[in-house]
Amino acid sequence: MGVQQIVEQLRPRVESSDFGKSVKFDTGGDGVIVIDGTTISTADAPTDCTISLTLDDLEALLSGDLSPTMAFMTGRIKVQGDMSVAMALSQLL
Asked: Mind telling me which Pfam families this protein's record contains (predicted)?
């Protein structure tokens, strides 16, 4: 699955949420996904929080096969910026 397919999968959840912050999933060469409030896109932009991970790890995170806490503790994901924004993502994922 590519970044665009993930965006389309997440779009209904993001648009119907009351998420009030901005977060970027940076998958390196595979691209970025930016959630800003109730909008989602693949256009890079400054955000409150950036989560860096591989595309495979993002897919595993979204499918529930990868624990966000375990991924963070083992260095599979890195968080820059406001950590509380990353923790608030549980309502979307």
From this structure: SCP2
